[in-house]
Write a structure and sequence with these properties.
Rossmann fold, seven-stranded parallel beta sheet, alpha/beta, six-stranded parallel beta sheet
């Protein structure tokens, strides 16, 4: 936790339960809000409630946030044999959350949606603890629609998102989707040095999210010899144990000539270097999950987006950026190596179009400071005079 000033350190510490996860898109807003709390030197104590093996557990441990695992069940819109046993885990998770909340006695709960956050929000309502649920995507997820009935506030990322039904006396705000503040502090020169990039060629950053995207990886693999005639590529493939792409692509790189091989940089994951990568990037190629869509909008990056088939949230995120003039959308069924090379070549040679797309991306983000808006609302919900005066 950041060091507070003498005056603020004497204020009542805010006790916050963070809940949500399953994917990086649900984790990032929590980390962005923590960054904002620290930046404002707000005294707070926290507990992260999540699943046993989700991405949120790793994030909490990395940031030294106390963590408690409860039973969670994935909520599905489609028919599946796993729906019934998964649904049965939700009340169990609520029962497990109740004693956790009683012991910690939070002033407020912050949920980032997703099925991981449902049990703690319901338990909080039973204990009369106010909660705020944040929706990262352009359409309401099933978990957010459930949480809205137990939350005191729902924060949306997009003005066009239909307002959910909230409990009596609850409110809906449009906050935007917060991104980690350090992502804005990248320096292209550091990326050039780290990856031995040349300023003579545009940089294409390929990402499939934390787990990678096999379809995108395969299309890039086939297109590499032609792509590398046009651009340099940093390619976040996802963990090799999940999709096998990293070893395959590293092998392809080793078979290229030295000239082309030096232009291609596959990596399974990105960390703190992502800010520098973004600063150096001319075009992003990737999925359109909430995290990626929010980052490229906030940072003003032209993009080619391939939504995950069947993921209506990703398609809606991508279409919003496309409608703003900030992105080109290719449905996965239409993604071929030839189409990929064609679109990358066209954008890489048209700096005016890239500049227009970058400006449109920034405008599409449309919100001043999402993390600050969410922190303001969380403090209001606590009702602590020290922080609401």
């Amino acid at each position: 936790m950041a060091r507070q000033s003498t005056t603020q350190a004497q204020r009542t510490p805010v006790r916050i339960v963070f809940t949500g996860g399953g994917t990086g898109g649900h984790v990032s807003p929590i980390l962005a809000v923590i960054d904002e709390l620290n930046a404002r030197r707000i005294a707070f104590e926290s507990l992260w409630v999540g699943s046993k093996h989700g991405a949120e557990r790793d994030a909490a441990e990395e940031h030294r946030i106390p963590y408690a695992a409860v039973s969670v069940g994935k909520l599905r819109r489609y028919v599946s044999l796993r729906t019934i046993p998964d649904a049965a885990r939700v009340p169990l998770g609520v029962a497990q959350s109740l004693p956790l909340l009683r012991r910690f006695q939070p002033h407020v709960i912050f949920s980032t949606g997703g099925y991981v956050g449902v049990p703690a929000v319901i338990a909080g309502r039973l204990l009369r603890i106010p909660s705020l649920t944040h929706e990262q995507t352009a359409v309401l997820g099933l978990a957010t629609r459930i949480n809205a009935r137990f939350s005191h506030c729902v924060a949306l990322s997009h003005e066009r998102t239909p307002h959910p039904k909230v409990i009596s006396g609850g409110s809906v705000i449009v906050s935007g989707n917060p991104i980690r503040s350090w992502l804005r502090d990248g320096e292209a020169s550091r990326a050039h040095c780290r990856f031995r990039l040349t300023p003579d060629l545009p940089l294409l950053y390929v990402t499939g999210g934390a787990q990678g995207a096999l379809a995108i990886n395969d299309a890039v693999a086939e297109a590499l010899p032609e792509l590398l005639q046009i651009v340099q590529v940093i390619h976040q493939t996802g963990p090799n144990e999940l999709n096998g792409s990293f070893e395959k692509l590293a092998g392809i790189r080793s078979s290229l000539s030295d000239c082309l091989g030096d232009r291609y940089h596959p990596t399974e994951r990105t960390g703190s270097e992502l800010a520098d990568i973004y600063a150096a990037t001319d075009i992003v190629l990737g999925r359109s999950g909430a995290g990626t869509a929010s980052e490229i909008a906030a940072l003003g990056l032209p993009s080619i987006l391939i939504p995950l088939p069947g993921a209506i949230e990703q398609l809606a995120n991508a279409r919003l950026l496309e409608a703003a003039g900030a992105a080109l959308v290719i449905e996965q069924g239409d993604l071929t190596p030839q189409r990929l090379v064609y679109e990358v070549r066209a954008l890489s040679k048209d700096s005016a179009s890239r500049s227009a797309m970058a400006n449109a991306a920034r405008v599409s983000s449309g919100h001043g400071d999402p993390a600050a808006s969410i922190v303001d609302e969380l403090l209001r919900l606590t009702g602590i005079p020290d922080w609401t005066d």
